[in-house]
Design brief:
6-stranded antiparallel β-sheet, 5 helices, alpha+beta, single chain, 19% helix, 3-stranded antiparallel β-sheet
């Protein structure tokens, strides 16, 4: 009998593995997100990831990718996000009134509002498509370097930025000369199609609190 505690006949085993896989396939709808973690991040305080490190975030798990990584920049879309308690509003239509309202509110401290370009990346070392929401002022400035690199590989680094009052970490993006493996054309087309045609409303896990900073 091995590890089987209850026989298959008693468990209602008509459900096949294919049926089960189809039921849970929705769990893979949301791509992991790439995030640069700064010293103000709860995850850094809790020792889940190093300060100034990139992390691959999905559900409650964080994979520490270090201070530098290579990725292919696949696509880009606009995104605005508002977090109000348990209510999360995500908008991709840059011309909509809601997007513009969230954009306006994002310049207020601790508003829970963010906007900016969201990039689709392929990280070959993780064999994974990810999203990267560049929603702070610092990230949006660096995002200008990414638009010409769509379809190409880039190296993502981190730099410490200092002013008279604050210190924070920001991304640095440069062209990558290292050859990277890419998935099949069919896989790319499928993921890009979903990325560029998101649902009108989405439920998202709230980004770490440092993402709400205006810097």
């Amino acid at each position: 009998m091995g590890n089987e505690l209850i026989s298959k006949e008693l468990t209602g085993g008509e459900l096949t593995k294919c049926d089960f896989d189809d039921m849970v396939s929705g769990a893979e709808t949301y791509l992991p997100r790439l995030q640069l973690f700064s010293s103000k991040s709860d995850a850094c305080t809790e020792g889940k990831i190093g300060i100034g490190h990139y992390g691959l975030v999905k559900d409650n798990d964080i994979i520490d990718l270090g201070t530098e990584l290579d990725a292919v920049i696949v696509s880009c879309r606009p995104k605005a996000l508002q977090i109000d308690g348990d209510n999360i509003i995500t908008v991709y239509d840059q011309e909509s009134d809601t997007y513009q309202k969230i954009k306006e509110l994002s310049f207020a401290t601790d508003s829970g509002c963010m906007y900016g370009p969201e990039f689709l990346l392929w990280i070959s070392s993780q064999n994974q498509f990810v999203t990267y929401f560049m929603s702070s002022k610092t990230a949006r400035r660096e995002a200008r370097k990414m638009w010409p690199l769509i379809g190409q590989a880039a190296t993502f680094k981190c730099k410490l930025i200092e002013t008279a009052r604050f210190k924070w970490h920001g991304p640095v993006v440069v062209p990558c000369s290292t050859p990277l493996d890419v998935p099949s054309v069919d896989s790319i087309q499928s993921v890009v199609g979903n990325f560029q045609n998101p649902p009108k409303s989405e439920l998202e896990i709230a980004p770490d609190s440092e993402e709400n900073r205006v810097v």
